[in-house]
Specification:
Elements: H1 27-33, E1 55-58, E2 77-80, H2 82-88, E3 110-112, E4 118-120, H3 123-131, H4 137-162, H5 169-193
Antiparallel strand pairs: 1-2, 3-4
Length: 194
């Protein structure tokens, strides 16, 4: 059986109750509610320049006349990386189309494999996967980099603990070298895929 992981490490949820006259004024609240990550692919915003590099997607596109009234409605806004926002743009399908990334249903249609690759598990998930270009290598690479960064932090804690004694230092340094080699591999791979 294939290990399936959620696409979103932490489920985003919209908490802002303030009414604003411009949707762009919600960017800070969206960033916080979406955990500094794209609602669709879960890429962290610092890989695209932080808040300034991320965009606000209208889940139900404001360009469709019946959704114009939702232009400044916080419940219709998604903090989005430029890749997912441009891919989705004005696309809309009433049934079996996109799923709001704040919905608990989102994880029923999309997942990640143990290597970080985004996969679909349903026909509707395939639609979302295809329309948002979630198969881009960058999503997998950024997920792996995030995992390596966490491991590197854990290793730094272990190294500090080992400084008190000599046992295990070589093992810790070997583990550090292995992690650094992975970082270098995926950093090169990321640069080449842009």
């Amino acid at each position: 059986m294939v290990n399936k992981l959620n696409v979103q490490e932490v489920k985003p949820q919209r908490t802002c109750q303030t009414k604003k006259t411009r949707y762009s004024a919600y960017k800070l609240e969206l960033r916080e509610d979406f955990n500094n990550r794209c609602g669709y692919c879960d890429d962290e915003d610092y890989h695209a320049g932080g808040k300034s590099g991320y965009q606000i997607d209208h889940f139900k596109p404001k360009s469709i006349p019946r959704f114009e009234v939702l232009e400044h409605d916080y419940s219709n806004l998604v903090y989005s990386c430029p890749y997912c926002n441009r891919a989705k743009w004005n696309k809309w399908k009433d049934s079996n189309g996109f799923i709001d990334p704040c919905s608990t249903e989102y994880k029923q249609h999309l997942c990640r494999d143990k290597h970080g690759k985004i996969c679909h598990t349903t026909k509707q998930g395939k639609y979302i996967f295809t329309e948002l270009n979630l198969g881009l290598k960058r999503h997998e690479i950024l997920w792996i980099i995030r995992k390596i960064e966490v491991q590197k932090c854990e290793l730094e804690v272990r190294i500090q603990m080992l400084k008190k004694g000599h046992a295990g230092r070589l093992k810790a340094l070997e583990q550090f070298l292995e992690i650094q080699n992975l970082v270098d591999k995926y950093t090169r791979s990321f640069r080449d895929s842009i």
